[in-house]
Amino acid sequence: MQEVQNVELFINNKFVPASTKETFELSSPYTGEVVAKVAEASVDDVNTAVLAAQASFPAWSAMSPLERGRPLKKLGEKILAETQTLAGLEALSMGRPVGGYFDATYASVHFNYFGEAGYAQGHTSLNTPGFLNMSLKQPFGVVGVIIPWNAPLVFFSKKIAPAVAAGNCVVLKSSEKAPMTSWKVAQWIEECGFPPGVINVICGHGQTSGNAMSMHMKIRVISFTGSTATGRAIQIASAKSNLKKVVFELGGKGPAIVFDDADIDAAVAATEFSINYNSGQTCMANSRIYVQESIKKKFTEAFKRASSCRSLGDPSDPKVNHGPQADGAQYNTVLKYIELGKKSGSLVLDGTNEEAKHIVHPVVFTDQPEDAQIMKEEVFGPVVVINTFTEEQDVIDKANDTEYGLYAALFTKDLERAMRVSKKLESGMVGVNCASPTGSWDLPFGGYKGSGTGRESLLESMDHFLENKSIYFKVSGIGG
Ligand code: NAD
């Protein structure tokens, strides 16, 4: 029997229950056991957390980047040292396999990097005669962070680290489906040396606490990762309240294009991993694969073989690389799309489902009409469509015919074609002879169109959390 954890709100460096004392239960999708009682943050709790952040802002923002960096780096080291604990919590609460858990390393890199990179700089100008002008980059004050459940610690770190390094104080709301690692990391915040109120971590459902954050008059920036529908709701709330800045990383419906000159085995390996990693619960997964007509049979057969080799089962077993969907609701959503896909196209790999454990075995469709629901909407499960094309321009048009634009992949040995097609794809990221999640620390991460606004990376993220101020400084006798 698993010990049921009491997941509370972390405000002002103290764990507290929700002001209403309301809680909800979190169950393991694999065993069905209750693993935690989670505090449901109320509107009052959001206000309390924002007040704590506001109160700590003057002192925190007045520190030097060197001083602010020390607790960041300590937290980075602590997270790395606790990789196994963190991986175990995600496996338990949302079924993420411990084998291949990279989130703690990712988080540690972010806290370590921003622990040293908090030196914001504006510029100076002598281009106006009689003036020595300057621009300053300054923190906003209170930043709101709202994160999803599929890789919680990744989003926790890639948003909190640059925001606090820049001198802001943060209120983060974790996902109601995966609050465990945010709560665990909050337990180390004080011992790493963060003053009270700099990082506040609340949990609860989006409609209450998430909406209260989006509407809050004292939160000046919301950095959000999640679905496009929720991004839209947050943008509306921002417009209705204080026009807070919004930075969005949203959903995807990634295409992968395989030309007939490609290394087919390599393309199969990369695209199969992309869609089935984390049981298909990845924003940048290639859920639409377009193969050139002449290689359809060879590619599809190899893809089915690769998909059938996954090691399914208990996410806490390091040998397992395909666990359950995050919860019953996500499992049912995936099944709904499989039924829709059966009506609109051909099912060529029929994943058996294990209802009690919420596991969906990989599913492959072919010959789907381009306007089928399964081609247009994000499934967020191990479900792929393999369609065909003949001409280059035809496949570019198909790949771009979506409201999303996060990550596209293409496979070819023709380098000129690779450059030409990469340029034409409406996508924030393009993999050439590789597929998502392949990425790079120092290149912008984010999407075109409905997949987001703004870009995140080690080099760019801090700018989201800094205001620009121009100072026109008249100086007598300075000349032109
Ligand atoms: P979601 O939008 O349902 O929830 C995300 C967060 O928003 C949760 O914390 C939730 O409580 C909160 N929320 C819900 N309604 C809200 C509201 N009205 N106001 C404020 N907050 C609200 O998304 P999810 O199901 O947790 O995550 C899956 C989605 O996230 C997918 O669409 C996926 O593509 C996307 N995603 C995008 C990226 C990226 O980097 N682009 C990365 C991971 C996930």
Kindly describe this structure:
The protein has helices at residues 43-62, 65-81, 83-94, 103-116, 152-165, 180-186, 206-215, 228-240, 264-276, 296-307, 328-344, 373-376, 392-400, 415-424; strands spanning 5-7, 9-11, 14-16, 23-27, 34-39, 124-125, 133-139, 142-146, 169-173, 199-202, 219-225, 245-249, 254-258, 286-292, 346-349, 353-354, 359-360, 363-366, 383-389, 407-411, 429-432, 452-453, 466-471. With 480 residues, it is α/β, with parallel strands linked by helices. Helix content is 36%, strand content 21%. The chain is globular. The chain has a 7-stranded mixed sheet, with helices on both faces. Strands 10-9-8-11-12-22 form a 6-stranded mixed sheet, with helices on both faces. A 3-stranded mixed sheet has the order 1-5-4, with helices on one face. The model has no long low-confidence stretch (mean pLDDT 97). The protein has 2 domains: 5-250 and 453-469, 3-Layer(aba) Sandwich (Aldehyde Dehydrogenase, Chain A, domain 1); 255-441, 3-Layer(aba) Sandwich (Aldehyde Dehydrogenase, Chain A, domain 2), CATH 3.40.309.10. The longest helix is centred in the N-terminal third of the chain and has 20 residues, at 43-62. It has 14 helices and 23 strands. Nicotinamide-adenine-dinucleotide binds at residues 146-150, 173, 175-176, 205-207, 210-211, 214, 225-227, 230, 233-234, 249-252, 283, 378, 380, 406, 447, 451-452. Belongs to the aldehyde dehydrogenase family. GO terms for molecular function: aldehyde dehydrogenase (NAD+) activity. Its EC number is 1.2.1.3. It catalyses: an aldehyde + NAD(+) + H2O = a carboxylate + NADH + 2 H(+). This is aldehyde dehydrogenase (NAD(+)).
